[in-house]
Amino acid sequence: MKIKKILVSQPKPANDKSPYLELAERNNLKIDFHPFIKVEGISPKEFRQSRIDILDHTAIIFTSRTAIDHFFRIAEDLRITVPDSMKYFCISESVALYLQKYIVYRKRKIFYGQNIFKDLVEQEISKHSAEKFLVPLSDIHKPEIPRILDKNKIKYTKAILYRTVCNDLSDLKDMNYDMLVFYSPSGIKSLFQNFPDFEQNNTKIACFGPHTARAIKKAGLQLDIQAPTPKMPSMTMALEKFIRQYNKNGAP
Predict the structure, then answer these.
(1) Parallel, antiparallel, or unpaired: how do β-strands 156-166 and 37-41 relate?
(2) How far, in Å, are 33, 140, 145, 169 from residue 185 at the CA level?
(3) Which end of the chain is less congested by CB atoms within 10 angstroms, N or C?
């Protein structure tokens, strides 16, 4: 049996330049997209119950655009004016540039890394250890974030501003795909919440990131493709290599 039909547990790409669409065209594949999870912001009431005062902090660490959206949403809902003196530390330049949606970028103190949290802390945040940092996060976040901050003796407050919840997948009806592609442990949780009797059988499973890989194995599923690797830094590169070999010769 060849791999012809793939389900990616993410939203459909916004334009035709997606590597997934190019992958489908090159290899004569049908690729469907359906987000298995969604993000919901916590309410102002819930945030007040955390007893966190945004204005007690002098700097903010942003690990994603979603964190930026929900930080400024909460600030607006609570009628908090974020001072111009606030410093912003972002996981990457693209996340930093996203701040332009909410602030006058050139008039603020903004620092960013190369998409590796450990490097951001060691190369930028540690130089400003006198600051009091606020870290907006999801209820499900990478454990290394607080661990690295603690290791570097950074004074910070973890603020849960949004949560990850399972999507309703009833419109999928069944999981009749040759391959499923996951990007987070929450996607695995959503799979079994929506399809409690799911059996992998001959379905191939691919994932991005070590945390997702662990969740797949913990669920008793067989992991066939994992990215990133030094030779396959993207999910689509890893998929293409596997699919071409599998469709030509059978299992690699």
Answers:
(1) antiparallel
(2) 17, 9, 17, 16
(3) N
Q: Distance between CA atoms of 98 and 137, rounded to whole angstroms?
A: 17
Nearest to 31 by CA among 151, 214, 179, 143: 179
Task: Answer whether 0.70 is exceeded by the pTM.
Answer: yes
Give the burial string for 173-206 (b: 16+ CB within 10 Å, else e).
eebebbbbbbbbbbbbbbbeebeeeeeeeebbbb
Structure confidence by residue, pLDDT tens digits, 96-107: 999 999 998 888
- What does the DSSP assignment read for 14-78? SSTT-HHHHHHHHHT-EEEE--SEEEEEPPHHHHHHTT--GGG-SEEEESSHHHHHHHHHHHHHT
Model confidence pLDDT, tens digit, residues 39-96: 999 999 999 999 999 999 999 999 999 999 999 999 999 999 999 999 999 999 999 9
Q: Which residues contact 10 (CB under 8 A, 6 or more apart)?
A: 33, 35, 181, 183
User: pLDDT tens digits for 186-234?
Assistant: 999 999 999 999 999 999 999 999 999 999 999 999 999 999 999 999 9
Q: Could you give the domains of the chain?
A: 5-36+177-249 (3.40.50.10090), 40-164 (3.40.50.10090)
Residue 101, Cβ density class (10 Å: 0-12 exposed, 13-18 middle, ≥19 buried): exposed
Helix or strand or coil: residue 248?
helix
